Every structure is written in structure tokens, then in C-alpha cells.
Amino acid sequence: MHKTAKQIYGSLEGNRYQYIDRARSCSKLTLPYVMPEEGFGSHSRLDTPFASVAARGVNNLASKLLLALLPPNAPLFRLNVDNYGMRQEGTPEEVISSIEASLQKVEEAVMDEVSRESYRSALHEALKHLIITGNVLLYMPDDGGIRVFHLDRYVVERDPMGRVINIATKETIAYSALTEQMKSLVPSDGNMEQEVELYTAVCRHENGWHVYQDIEGERVPDSEGSYAVSYTHLRAHETGRNRG
Question: From CA 173, how far away is CA 200, in angstroms rounded?
Fold first, then answer.
């Protein structure tokens, strides 16, 4: 029987404590809202650093990295063809020009998607987490956008070669934001603003990846999926200096 996503999350949670403690210490000296203390809520107060030099340094560095990754007025990559090789094969010039024009349209389409989906704001947040905490998890759903998971909201298990074995995330969602299928798994007292913990697991097996979600220890209907190891649309990536 497979472990629930919550069980996977709980079994790996203890391995990241040292990274979270260090991340919170660094966050206190730079941008306290990036990794606040455990139990921080809407009525809590953030610590204020004695100087703003570290905060300005993080913001400036994150902005420069973002400009390097996603330049605002230029494509972030170039698509080229081997003009010399195509001419050697006798390809007409008008065909080469047509191919180059088509590739340029692909570059422009990618730039439009980056602007339309607000990738820059999410990546800017992720870069600040990388600079301060050393870790961040990005999830890119098929319907667009980027979801940023903070260090205290995900766990990752790797094999000795560094390949990902398990990923588990924890989300706190208001009852009113759940789907009808999810609501059927949660005992409700009529409070639409009660918070529910949603766990997601991405597990690697011999035949590929197995993805599923659970609430209150119950599997969420229609949340399961299986993908090949090389499946490119499973776009959940953990990046950073620490492998926790």
C-alpha cells in the first residue's frame, strides 16, 4: 500500500530542520518576510533589521539575475539554423529566410507568454529565496503560470546520485477555495474560511512518476496520474544549494 502524501511529507520533514533554521537566521538579517518564524500569522510582527544594506543587496542581486534570465526587451534565447550547411545542400535563399522568420515568431511567442503569465514576478520571488535560503521549488502547471513553494512547504528525497525520488508539498487552503470533490473529504462545521491542509506527492518508480494528492488522509478523487521518467510536462523542479 502506498504511503499517503502526508506520510511522505512527515517522514522527510525532519531532514530539513537545519536548512530552515539557517534560512530563518539569514532572512532576519535581510528580508524577514521571506522565511518568517514558525507560527507566523496575520497578527504577528516581523523583525526589523538594524540596517537595510543586506535587504538592498538581495533585491539588487535578484533584479540583476532576473534581467539576465528574462531580459525585458529581448528574447531570452535564439533559434538559429545552419545557414552554411543549408546553402551547401542547395537550399534556396527564400526557404532559408522563411525558416528564419518562422523561428523568430517562435521566439516572440515565448516572450509574449512570459509577459502574459507574469513569470517575472514569480521568478523574482524565487530568486530572492535562492539568495537568502538557498532553496526553492517551482511548479509550472500546464494551464500556465508558476507556483513558488517556500522551503518550509516542501520536502525532497534524492538517491546517492542526486536524482529525485520523492517530492511532497503542503498547502494550506481555505475551505471555500476547495473543489466539490475535495470538500466531500473534509468534515465542515459551516465555516467557509476554515483552513484545510492539502498534500501533494510526486514519487518515482521503476516505470516512471506517480502523482497524487490527499486531504485528511484520504486520496483526492481524480488527482492521481502516472508519467514516464522523461515526461516533460511534469514540470516541478527543486533547485538550490542544499539538498534537503
Answer: 13
